[in-house]
Amino acid sequence: MLKMLSTKFQRQFLLSILSKQSQNGGRNYATAKRFYRRADIVQNENKWEVTLDHRRLKTPNGLVFNVNTEGLARAIAAEWDAQHDGISQPSMHLTALCNTALDNPGKLDKHDIAIHLLEYLATDTVLFFSDEEEELRLLQEQKWGPVLEWFEKRFNIKQEVSSDFQPPPVTTETRAVLARHFLSYDFPALNAMNFGTEALKSPILMLACVDRFLQPKEAVMLARLEEEYQLQRWGRVPWAHELNQVELTSRVAASLLIIQNSTELHTEKAKKKAEES
């Protein structure tokens, strides 16, 4: 059984913490000047650390920054090497996600994040169809329909959609199925799934990316479908919307890299254990 948050205040506090995680998730490097020449990695027993000019990278709480695989460590080192004269924290999604997983500033556990994602489902972007513009609704049915069909088939459930501002019902069975799925991931992966969900405003689109039914760029376009529809009708601000799309795509891609790293690590451990038995 999922742990339930006992009060409305606790629930609001959880949502506040998760929202802050999605915005930064780590130390405020936004205005810091680059103080190192290069980033590298070093293996320490079964962990991989990132170094800046041979100095160990630390989390905001002072823990040694480490990850479980060489591939992820190299990706994070590349993130630090990509910085220029100043260190731009908002662009360092992998570092922020790993900082949050290591420090856990909100003192959350997997059940807390699973509850948050389940509550988010009722407000999922792809469950709200237009009831005013027929052309937009037809576009939503065309683009979102296949994703919803995949979602129902993947989890063997039925999910209603809404054509007004009222959230669609989410059955107890659907919640139970998705709860088991979410809790099958470890804390870093589930934290990353929340980060991607916040970017897309859609647990369904994020799950579709994790299952490789969608690519990050496709998911972002689907998340912004109504906005794109309106922009085509009324025009867009040059570059602004494209930059937003790139930023959202990078957030989702970073989340997927963390999740994939975690999933492959657990698969490798399970395979090794099976071979030994």
Uncertain residue ranges: 1-30
Tally of helical segments: 11
Number of strands: 4
Radius of gyration: 20 Å
Helix and strand succession? HEEEEHHHHHHHHHH
What about the largest sheet? Answer: 4 strands, antiparallel
Q: Globular, elongated, flat, extended or rod-shaped: what is the shape?
A: globular
**Assembly of the depicted chains:** single chain
Name the beta content range: 5-15%
Secondary-structure-derived class: mainly alpha
What is the overall pLDDT average? 87
**Helix content estimate:** 55-70%
End-to-end distance: 31 Å
List keywords for this structure.
single chain; 277 residues; mainly alpha; disordered N terminus
Task: Summarize it.
With 277 residues, the protein is mostly helical. It is built from 11 helices and 4 strands; from the N terminus they run αββββαααααααααα. Strands 1, 2, 3 and 4 form a 4-stranded antiparallel beta sheet that branches.
Q: How do the strands and helices of this protein lay out in sequence?
A:
Elements: H1 8-23, E1 39-44, E2 47-52, E3 55-56, E4 66-67, H2 70-81, H3 93-103, H4 110-121, H5 134-155, H6 172-183, H7 187-200, H8 203-210, H9 216-223, H10 225-234, H11 240-276
Antiparallel strand pairs: 1-2, 2-3, 2-4
Helix pairs in contact: 1-7, 3-7, 3-11, 4-6, 4-7, 5-8, 7-8, 7-11, 8-9, 9-11
